[in-house]
Specification:
The complex is a heterodimer of chains A (157) and B (479). Chain A is mainly α. Chain A is built from 5 helices and no strands. Chain A is globular, with a radius of gyration of 17 Å. Chain B has 479 residues and is α/β, with parallel strands linked by helices. Chain B has a 7-stranded mixed β-sheet, with helices on both faces. In chain B, strands 12-13-16-15 form a 4-stranded antiparallel β-sheet. The longest helix of chain B has 19 residues, at 2-20. The chains are: A mainly alpha (157), B alpha/beta (479). The interface between A and B is medium-sized, with 28 and 24 residues. Chain B: Its EC number is 2.3.1.50. Chain B: GO terms for molecular function: pyridoxal phosphate binding; serine C-palmitoyltransferase activity.
Chain lengths: 157, 479
């Protein structure tokens, strides 16, 4: 029957907030979620595929920006608040920059943008919204932006 | 206003789209260069660049020579031990006998108003007999936490006894008086919860609030208007008040001031704003109410309305340890989640049997409560005209609290003045009185003062002697 169960090595990431991203299959699941949500949007709203991809792109922007780059700290009280000033993106991989996970997560919004803008034939207003979304996400994921808070936004406790 | 906004956004979008849709100005290898192509090419280049970089940890920049030199110059050495000041040399009076209504200090017999022996159970024969019996049967220690072979039948009996006495479904015992409240609060209140607490709670409660990591809002001491304002503010401010757990933490009789919390008001507010009450009854259990059942009995509030009641048994019941009661779920949750219960050795069995004997005594002799009440009333009357000091406690509180009418300026000089009054009262009139001593960790801002703990076993002459002594000493010291 082949390998029904994947053996996951216990990850050395002690941060319960981010260690779930070390498991095999996370990338595939992420891409699968995006595809399934595109399909759902297409079937529920009955719009063109391009608009559906735009909707998926914008929704993905809103969700990932909020959870990766806005919310700080962890929902686990046992870590005694050592990550209280760090967003999920900054906590990932223990702060190591340009790891495989980070590169994957940087590439995903760009690929989404390319698909969305291509399938909408570069029409306005979808194009400007998509461009804005990908710009913000890509800049937020630069290694130079590690622990940077522009104009003190989101610097509070 | 809205129309103007729509116009502005429309014109901005038009401008941007015209920039994007500008007629193709260049044709490179037959491919018309549109604006979006530039953006995409830029993106792809940036991403490919990032993808090809190696992963690295952000470097920890070591200090430069100049920075090291600057830090060394700024450093001022501190002595290994601080200078021994005169207050550090202070030795409080040591009791050389049991802390009953009459005790022996420095070889002299004194009238003891510094022990919270409200029902006069220190040295009671029934309690001592039950202790001796338990010692012979179980030995001294229980040698284990409750979850690991440290549960003895007297613990279960004591819990049942207290629950039946108070009329609650169940109760849970703790092995150290003040660890009750600072284990119960973190067991229920977690990070993100909201607690509205009285600003006059004692250090153990403050420690519990700190350990819970919840958002704590303090209201003015025993001021129901301030409590209502804080509750209103907190309910208004939180985005989803129904989803957040909200607690009110009060003490029945405040150790730091002798005030009694108006429980009926608090319960009314709790039901209006949907909060839960955590009530610390350490000084009111066995004191207030017609049968000594505490503040709920005294105020006529049904005991089910109070969610969590804790008490230390070191005061009226003259044993040690503490208990917490409430509904079955409240008590059950603590058996696995309360740090003081799970991770500390259980109450020594002789103390648990002493607690059972004390509650039995209280049930059989309710007259001791009326004796205590007359004693409090007598002392309160006598102390109403002490020169320089004013009564700050509630008329029914067994902790009679006297504070300075006029503060001498700094907290330090106030403490010195009160200490000298207590010292003189002890040396000249053999009356042992305590000043409120606050630790450096205590954040309570209430004024300090002299505290007299009234006991049911104080005789009338003891009370009159103490009152006369205080009046005399205060008149001479505060001039």
């Amino acid at each position: 029957m082949g390998k029904l169960y994947v053996e996951a090595k216990p990850s050395v990431d002690l941060n319960k907030n981010t260690e779930w991203f070390m498991y095999p299959g996370v990338w595939t699941t992420y891409i699968a979620i995006l595809f399934v949500s595109w399909f759902l949007v297409l079937s529920v709203f009955g719009c063109t595929p391009g608009v559906a991809w735009t909707v998926v792109n914008l929704f993905h922007f809103a969700v990932t920006y909020h959870f990766f780059h806005w919310k700080k700290g962890t929902p686990f009280a046992e870590d005694q608040g050592i990550y209280n000033a760090l967003t999920w993106w900054e906590q990932m991989d223990n702060g190591k920059q340009l790891t495989r996970n980070r590169k994957f997560l940087t590439a995903v919004p760009v690929v989404l943008y390319l698909i969305a803008s291509h399938t909408t034939d570069y029409q306005q207003p979808m194009l400007i919204l998509n461009t804005l979304a990908v710009f913000v996400l890509v800049v937020a994921k630069f290694p130079n932006m590690h622990k940077v808070r522009i104009f003190g936004i989101n610097a509070g406790n | 206003m809205a129309l103007a906004m729509v116009n502005v956004t429309a014109s901005v979008l038009d401008w941007v789209s015209s920039a994007f849709d500008a007629p193709t100005r260049a044709v490179v290898f037959g491919v018309p260069i549109d604006g979006h192509l530039v953006v995409e090419a830029l993106l792809v280049v940036v991403i490919l660049f990032q993808l090809t970089r190696k992963s690295y940890k952000p470097p920890k920049k070591p200090l430069t020579e100049k920075e090291i030199d600057e830090l060394c110059d700024d450093w001022v050495p501190e002595p290994l031990t601080p200078q021994i000041t005169e207050d550090m040399m202070y030795e409080p009076p040591t009791l050389e006998s049991a802390a009953g209504p009459h005790a022996i200090v420095n070889g002299k017999e004194v009238v003891n108003f510094a022990s919270a022996n409200y029902l006069g159970l220190v040295g009671n024969e029934k309690i001592t007999d039950s202790c001796v019996g338990a010692l012979e049967k179980y030995g001294v220690g229980s040698c284990g936490p409750r979850g690991f072979y440290g549960t003895i039948d007297v613990h279960l009996d004591c819990e049942q006894k207290i629950a039946k006495f108070l009329g609650t479904p169940d109760s849970i015992l703790y092995s150290y008086g003040i660890s009750t409240i600072f284990s119960v609060i973190p067991a229920f209140c977690k990070k993100g919860d909201i607690i509205v607490a009285d600003e006059g709670v004692h250090w153990a409660v403050q420690n519990g609030l700190y350990l819970s990591r919840s958002t704590v809002v303090y209201f003015k001491h025993n001021d129901m208007k301030s409590l209502e304002n804080k509750l209103e503010e907190v309910t208004r401010r939180s985005k989803q008040p129904e989803k957040v757990r909200r607690y009110i933490v009060v003490e029945a009789i405040y150790q730091n001031s002798g005030q009694i919390a108006p429980l009926d008001e608090i319960v009314r507010l709790k039901e209006k704003y949907r909060f839960r009450i955590i009530l610390d009854e350490s000084h009111s259990f066995g004191v207030l109410g017609n049968s000594g059942r505490g503040l709920a009995d005294h105020c006529g509030v049904p005991i089910e309305k109070i969610d969590i009641i804790t008490a230390g048994m070191g005061n009226a019941l003259a044993t040690d340890g503490g208990f917490c009661t409430g509904s079955v779920r409240v008590v059950d949750h603590q058996r696995l989640s309360s740090s003081g219960y799970v991770f500390s050795a259980s109450l020594p069995p002789y103390l648990a049997s002493a607690a059972i004997a004390a509650v039995d005594y209280l049930e059989e002799n309710p007259s001791v409560l009326s004796k205590l009440r007359t004693n409090i009333a007598t002392l309160f009357n006598e102390l109403s005209d002490v020169p320089g000091l004013v009564l700050a406690s509630h008329i029914l509180s067994p902790i009679v609290f006297l504070k300075l009418k006029k503060s001498t300026g700094t907290g330090k000089t106030d403490i010195d003045l009160l200490d000298s009054i207590a010292k003189q009262a002890l040396e000249e009139d053999s009356v042992l009185i305590a000043t409120t001593k606050r630790s450096s960790l205590d954040k309570c801002k209430l004024p300090i003062g002299l505290r007299l703990f009234v006991s049911a076993s104080h005789s009338e002459s003891d009370l009159l002697k103490a009152a006369a002594s205080l009046k005399r000493v205060a008149a001479s010291v505060i001039s």
